[in-house]
Amino acid sequence: xxxxxxxxxxxxxxxxxLFSHAQKGTIRxxxxxxxxxxxxxxxxxxxxxxxxxxxxxxxxxxEILVDPGTYSLKLSFISYNTIQIGGVVVxxxxxxxxxxxxxxxxxxxxxxxxISAEAIRTTEAALMSVKxxxxxxxxxxxxxxxxxxxxxxxxxxxxxxxGVSIEGGKYVYIRGxxxxxxxxxxxxxxxxxxxxxxxxxxxDIFPTNVIDNIIVSKSFTAELPADFTGGxxxxxxxxxxxxxxxxxxxxxxxxxxxxxxxxxxxxxGGKTDWLGFDDGTxxxxxxxxxxxxxxxxxxxxxxxxxxxxxxxxxxxFNPVLGGTxxxxxxxxxxxxxxxxxxxxxxxxxxxxxxxxYRNETQYFTDAQYNLFGKPSDANNFEMEALERSNGDFGVxxxxxxxxxxxAYKSDNSKIKLNLLRLQSGESKVGQFYFVNTNLGALFEAxxxxxxxxxxxxxxxxxxxxxxxxxxxWNLEWKLSPTRSSIxxxxxxxxxxxxxxxxxxxxxxxxxxIWRSLDEESLFGSLDLSNNYKFKDAVAKxxxxxxxxxxxxxxxxxxxxxxxxxxxxxxxxxxxxxEENLFSSTNRNGLRYDPTFIPINPNAYNSNLNSYQAYxxxxxxxxxxxxxIIGVRMETFSQFYTGTNQTGTIVFDNxxxxxxxxxxxxxxLIKSFKSxxxxxxxxxxxxxxxxxxxxxxxxxxxxxxxxxxxxxxxPETTNGGTEILWDGNLQSTxxxxxxxxxxxxxxxxxxxxxxxxxxxxxxxxxxxxxxSDPGAFQPRNVGDGQVIGVELELRxxxxxxxxxxxxxxxxxxxxxxxxQIEMSESEFRSRQLSAREGENVSRTRDMAGQAPYxxxxxxxxxxxxxxxxxxxxxxxxxxxxxxxxxxNRTDTYTVPFNSLNININKTWGRDERLQTTFNVDNLLxxxxxxxxxxxNAEDQIFSSINPGRRIALRFRYTIW
Amino acid sequence: xxxxxxxxxxxxTAAVVFTSCKEDExxxxxxxxxxxxxxxxxxxxxxxxxxxxxxxxxxxxxxFSIKKDGATxxxxxxxxxxxxxxxxxxxxTAADAGKNLVFEFTATDKDGSSATVTxxxxxxxxxxxxRVTGNITGTVNWTADKTYILGGRITVVSxxxxxxxxxxxxxxxxxxxxxxxxxxxxRGGKINANGTAASPIIFTSVADEIMSGEIASxxxxxxxxxxxxxxxxxxxxxxxxxxxxxxxxxxxxxxSDTNGLYGGxxxxxxxxxxxxxxxxxxGANIGEGNEINxxxxxxxxxxxxxxxxxxxxxxxxxxxxxxxxxxxxxxxxWNAGDDAIDTDQAWAGELDNFIVVCGxxxxxxxxxxxxxxxxxxxxxxxxxxxVGSSVAELGDxxxxxxxxxxxxxxFNFPNPATSGGRGDLSLSGxxxxxxxxxxxxxxxxxxxxxxxxxxxxxxxxxxxALTSIFRNGTHVHATDVALHANTIGxxxxxxxxWSWAAASGNLxxxx
Lengths: 959, 511
Fold this sequence. Notes:
Chain B: Residues 1-19 form the signal peptide. The complex is a heterodimer. Chain A is mainly beta. Chain A has a 22-stranded antiparallel β-barrel. In chain A, strands 3-2-5-6-8 form a five-stranded mixed beta sheet. In chain A, strands 9-13-14-12 form a four-stranded mixed beta sheet. In chain A, 49% of the residues are buried. Chain B is mostly beta strands.
C-alpha cells in the first residue's frame, strides 16, 4: 500500500510539468442545469473575439487554453438561455476556475443573460439546486462552499448541514437517531470505519480539499442501501481537481485544563506509539503457544519443563501496571494535500492525495464512574450507591491517514481509483479511587487502568462510469475491497485495597486482556440510468444491483493474576517484582490464570453476504408534481462460527440470519409559487443486528463490570417454563413517513417544516438479564414508534437592513416523541421494583433517541474579504442510554450545552494563507450520564469534563 | 459402577441408498463389507466406535448380523437394498478386561451369497481414573475405587442423580474464570454424597496427588488456592433477591448457562445429601463479586442434608449461602481467601457447630448480609470457634443483616487500632452518594431485636477493650476470656478423623 502511494506520487511529480502550459492560461468550469442541479453535457463554450472554444463533457466540465488577458465567454445550449460571462481574467500559467455556472431552460424570448465572473464565484452552490429540486429529501455541502467558509475537515463542514449533529467530534447523528439508524458511506460504498461496530465513519479524517461534496439523504430512495432509517451521509471524493493545488496545514490545539499539566498520566509505551501503532511492546506473552500451561498443572512441580514454561510466560508480562505523572503536551496536527489534472492525448487525468497526522492529548481530572441501584424498600426514594470511582485519566490519540485518488476521463468514460488508509492508536492511563458499597460490602481501593487501542483501515475503490448514446444512458460500476482491524493489546486493571494494599477476590484480581478484531469486506455494484422524456419532461429510470461480503474474526484472551500469599507496598509497578512471582521457592506466589482456555466464547468468526437489486423511476406525472417511485430488494445471510461458554453449542458457519426483503419507496414533491415545495415520502427500511450481536460472545468490561452477552442465548425464568428471550435475534423493519414544506429564498436562504413518523417492528435494544443485572444482551423489544417535527431556518439578516446582509442566522430544531412497547419481562421487573406511588406504564422512551435537538448558529460571511465567523450552539435532550432492569435504574445522558466559536480568514490577494481559529465548549459544560429513578434525585453514572479547547490552524496553499 | 451395562449396541440406519434395478441383472454378484477395522484396543469401561460398516449387495441385501465370540448379538433384516450402512459400537465391561473379543459381521444377499469380516477387540484393564466431561443425567454412581476428574463445569441437571460413595476422590482439572472446573447440582438435580468419618469424600485439584484413604495432601500446602472451581448446590427454595425476582443466576457461573439459576418457592426442596465432604484448593473468579466459593448453597431447601463439611484453601469464600432454607451441621473452613462463612439474600436456616481457621488472606470470618428484596427471613449461626489471623476481621454484619448469632468464641485476632481496622466485629451502615453514612439498617435491626447476639466470647489482644472489638454496642453480649478458657464454642470432636484441619493438628489447641 505504502509503495503504491509512493509510486503514484513519483509518477505524478515527474509527469505533471510535461503537461503544464506555462505560456498560456487555462479557463476551467462546470455547467449545471439550474432546474435539476445536474451537469449539462454538450454545452458550447465560446471565447468571444477568438475563434476558440470547448464543449462540456458528461460531467459538465470544459477547459480552454488562452493567452493571458481578460475575456468574455458565451455559453449556448439548445432550448436553454444563452449566458454571457464577462470579466474572465486569465493569467499566465494559472487556472481560472468558473464553477457553479447554471443554465436555465428556455423560458421566454429572453435573450442572453449576462453575468460577471466574480458573481459566479460567490453564487450559491449547484448543490442547492439539486436539493431544491430533488424529489427525495436531501441536504449537503459541496466543494464550492468549502472554498467560501474554509472548514478544515468533513466533521467541521457537515455541522453546517441542518439537522445533523456530530457526537464526540467524530460521529454523525441525524434527527437524533444514533448509530444503529444512521449510516456513513464513502463514494457510495459502505466502508467500515475505524470502529467496525459502528455504522459510521469517523468524519474528521477527511480534509475538505479531497472532498467534492457531502450529501445527507434523509429519505430513502431505492438506489441507497436499505439499512438506514435516520439517514445516509455520503462523502464523495474529488476526481478532477479544477486547478493544481498543493496545500500544507498545521494545527495547534490548547486546552487550559488539560495541557502542560504536570499531573498528566501516561506510561512509556512502544517506540512507534507516535505513529499510531504498537511496535510489539504489548504482544501477548502466550503468542504462538497452543497449549498454555496452567497453575494447577505446575504448582506441584515448578521445575518441570511445563513449570519452567509457565514461569517464563509469567515473567514475559510487562510489569508496568500503573501510570506515571508527567507533563502533558498540547495537540498538534498537520496535513498535506496535492492535486491536479492534466491531459495526455486528449484523455484527461486527475489525481489527488492527502495525508493527515494528528497527535492529541486529553487529561481528565475528577472523572467519575459510578453504579447506583434501587433500594429494596419501595418507600425509599434515595438510590443506593453500589460502586463509585473517582479519578484522573490521560488519553493520547494519534491518527495517521492517507487518501489517494487517480481518475481518468475519455469522451464517454470515467474511471477512478481511490485508496484510503487510516491508522490510529489511543493510549489511555487512569488512576481512580474506588469505593464498593454493593450489597453491604464496604471497602475502598486504589485502582489503576492502562489501555491501548490500535485501529487500522484500508479501502480501495475502483469505479467506472460510462455514458452511452450521448448521455442518455449512464452505466456505473464499483468494486471496493476493505480490510479493517482493531487491536486492544494488554488492557491492564489493578486494585489495591485501602489501607493494607492487599489484593484478593473481594477487591478484584489484577486482570489483563488482549482483544482483536479483523474484518475483510468486498463491495461491488452496477448501476444503470436512462434519461428519457415523460410527458415532455425529463425523467430518469435507474436500476442496478450490488453485492456485499464481509468476514470478521474476533478474539478476546484474558488473564487473571491471583496473588497467593504475596504482600504489596501499594506501588502498582512493583506488583510483578521478581520476588513476588511464582517459582520453585515461592509456590504460593503471584501467578497467571488464562481464563479463556479451553473454551473461549469470544473467539468467533462471522461472515455475511447480501445481494441487492433495485429499480427506481424519477418522473413528473403531473404538472409541478415530481415523483420517485422505486423498490429495492435485499437478501441478507449472516453466518457464525463459534461456541457458547459451556461448549455445549458449537456453530460451524451456521446461518444465523436469513432475510429477503423488499423495500418500497415513494417520494413526491409538489412545487408551487416557484420557490416553495411540499414533499411527502414513504419508505420501508431495515436495521440489522451486528456480528457481535448475533453471537455467543460473553465480553466482560472490567471497568464497568458489565458483561455483554451475544443475542443467540435464550433467557428463561420460573424454572425454564417462561421464555424471556428466545435467542432468535431478528432485524428491525421500519416504516418511514415524512411530510415537509420548504421555501427557498435568496442567498441560500431556506425555511422548512417537517413532520416525520417512524414505526419500528422489533427494535433491538440492550436489555439486562433478569437473573443477572450486570449482564446486557441485545434483544428485540416490543414495537416502537417515533414521531417528530423538524424546523429549519437559514436566513440572512439582510431583511432587517442591507448593511447586515452578510450576517446569517441558522437553526434546526427537532422535537421527537419516541415510544417503545415494553417486553413482558421488563414490565414485570419494573413493577416488582417500583417505588411507592409509581405508576409503571407499559411504554417508555426508545433507547438512543433524543427527545429534542437544538442546533443554532449565528454567522458572518463575506467571501470577498475572505472572512467567515460564527458562533454555534448544539444541545441534545436527555436520552435513555441503558434500559433498567431489576434493581438497576434507567440511565440518561444529561444535555451537553455545546457552544463553539469558529473564525476563518483568508489572507493576501491570492488567498494563499488561511487561518482558522476555534474554541470548543465555550460554556465549559461537562459530559454526564445519570441514573434516574422515580421521585429520586439523579445520581451520576459517568461524568467527565472536556474543558475548553482553543485551536488555531494555518493552511497555506503552495500552488 | 461395578456393574457396567453389559452390552451396549447401537444400530442406527444412517442412510440407505437405493439404486434402480436394471432388467438385465447379472446373477449372483458377490456381497462386500467395508469400513470395519481388523483390530482395536480399549480399556474396560471404554467404548469402541461408533464405526460405520458399508455393505454392497448388487443382488439385494437380505440381512446383516453381528456375532460376539460366536454368539449372535444382533440381526438386522433388509428388504433387498443394494447398499446399506450400519453403525456399530461396543462398551467393554469389567468382565471383558484382559480378553480379546472377536466380532464377526456377516451380510447375506437374497440369493444366499454372503460376506463376513472379523474385528478383534483387545480389552485392557479397567481404568482407575475417569474423566467426566458431560453433564449428569439419569442416575450416575461414582465409587471409591476410581478417581473422577472434572473436565469442565459438570452439572447434575434437573432430574439427574449423582451418587458418590464414601472415600471417593474427585479432582478438578485446571481451569479459571468461566472455564473453572466445578460440580454443579442444578435445581431439580440431586447429589447423594454419603461420606463417612472413616472415609470422607474429597474434592480437590488434579495437582493434588492425594489418593482415596488419605486425609492430608501429600504435596500441596493448605493455603494453595484457585486451582479449580468448587461445589455449587442450587435449589428451589425462596431467597430475597434484588428487584423481587424469584430466581437469579449464581455467582461464578456466566449468565448464559441456565443451570446456574437458583431460587423458587419450594422451602422444603430436596437437593440430596452432602455428608463428610472435604473441598480443597478451589475457588475461581469470573470478575469482581462473581466468584465460585468452596461450597456454594443457592436457595437450597430444608429437606437437603448437609453435615460434616470442610473447605480448605479456597480463593474466595469458604461456604456461602444465597437464600434458601437448608440447615448445615458441623462445618470447618480453613484458609479462606476471602470470607469464611458468608450469608446473603435472607438465608433461613441454621448453622450449628462450626470452626473457622483464618489464613493470611482471609477477610471476614463471618460476613453476614441482609435481604436484597422484600422477603425478610433470617438465619441462626451458633456454637462456633473462630481462630483469627493478623489480617482477618471477626465479623461484618451489613445491609440490614438479621438473625441470631450465639455461643461463638473468637481468638487470635489483631488489635483493630494497629491493623487498619482489622480484628473487629461491626455493623456497617449505608452511605449516600458522597460516601457519607446515611443509615445503618443492621444497627436498626440490632436495636430492634431482629439481629441478635448472645453469648459471644473472645480472647482479646493484650490491652484492647471489648468495645473496640465488638463495635456498635454489640460488646454487651461479649465476654473476654483467657485463651482457650471459653465456656462456649464448637465441639471439635465432630471434625476428628475425617477433616484435614483436624489431621493437621490445627484444632489440637481448641477446647
